[in-house]
Amino acid sequence: MAEITCPTDCSTDLPVVSFDDCNPEARLSEITKIYIARPDAVAFTDVALATEWAKRLSMTATPPAGEPATPVKDLIRPLTVIGDRPAPTPVTVDISNGRTKQLRKDFVINFTIDEITPENLEFQRNSECNMKVKFWYEIAGGLLFGGNEGIEATLASDLVLDRGTEAIVAINGTLTWKGRFTEEAVESPIA
What we know:
Number of domains: 1
Strand order of the largest sheet: 1-2-4-8-7-5
Mean pLDDT: 92
Oligomer: single chain
Shape: globular
């Protein structure tokens, strides 16, 4: 993922911003899709190209119909979810002269899968093995996060069986990772 170059002295060049009083741009933030791959899956050349996604999205171990033979390790599983990413938790240390240094941020995505198929149940069971993945996520507002390389994380989930005559079975999960910066975003080419 593209890194941000932080200043080496105490000065700060202010980045460009954009606001429009007449037509402000607001986006829905709920996470609706999570795309997972193996940690060793190849990076995208350009994550914003729909053609690259078309070659790799597969719910099985088979490349998409009509696409060239993509190695199985590079296929990406699309998950339909309801999710959120709260603000990350900064990890800081106190250092000399009353200063502090932020070492990293701890990130988490909370998600729910509410379509319970035999395949999704088996996926959930496998996630109990401390599953390492590379992933991207998409929000209802049409942004895709994760950059060309994706985000390396640990995926874990549990089956939830609530009380009540109207309650449905759900798979609740988390994706957790450590990083210094917020993940890159592009307009989703697969929305």
